[in-house]
Amino acid sequence: MKDVNANADGKRRAGEEAARRVQSGMTVGLGTGSTTAFAIAELGRRVRDEGLKIECCVTSFSSQNLALQAGIRPLPVESFDRLDISIDGADEVDPQLRLIKGGGAAHTREKIVHALSSEFLCIVDPSKLVSQLGAFRVPVEFLPVSLKLVQRELVKLGGDCALRMAVKKDGPVVTDNGNLVFDVAFPPFDADLLEKEINTIPGVLENGLFARYRPSEVIVGESELRFLKR
Known about the structure:
Rossmann fold, Alpha-Beta Plaits, 2 domains, ribose-5-phosphate isomerase activity, NagB/RpiA_transferase-like, Ribose5P_isomerase_typA_subgr, Ribose-5-phosphate isomerase A, isomerase
C-alpha cells in the first residue's frame, strides 16, 4: 500500500504551484490522490482569502469530500463539455510525459476529466519520475462479470494480474463506478500500444496508462520547482 505521507513537502510545493495557475472564471477538473489534495486545499484558501471564483468537477468521492471541506462545491463531470484546466498527480512519469495513474482507483474518471481539459497539469514529487514506465503495476478497471475473461486476455498480453483487495474490509476494492481493479505487471512495453490493446478487451472500462492523454506540463515539487513540458 502506498504511503500517502511520503515526500509531503514536494507534493505540497507542486500542488500549490498548480493551484496558483488557476484564474477566476476558469472551469477546473480536480484529480484524486495525496498530491492533488494539496492543490485542492490551496484552491479552497484562494476562494476564501482572494475571492477566487471557479466552477469545478472532481474525479472521485474522496476528492469531492476534500473539495467540500475546502469550501469548494463541485459540479458533476457531465455538467461540462470542456474544462480550462485540470490538476492531478501520477504514480509514474516517463521522459515523454506518459503516465501510469490509478493508485487511487480513480483513473477512469481522471481520464475523462483530462480529455475534457484544454490544459492538464500533472503534479508530482521527484520519486515519481522514471526512465521507463512499469515498476508500478498498471491498474485496469473492469466489470465484475468479466473477471475471468479480462484476466485471461491480460495474461495473453504478458500481464501478471493481482486483484486489488480492500484494506479493513473483506473482499476486493470496488471503484466509485461499481467495478473491480486488476493491478497488472507487464514486461517492458510500448505504452502507446499497450494502452490501446488493454482497452480492446471486452469488459475493460479503462486502464491507468496515460499515453494518449498526456499532461501538457509536469510540475515536480523540489526545493526549486522543476517544470517538464511536451
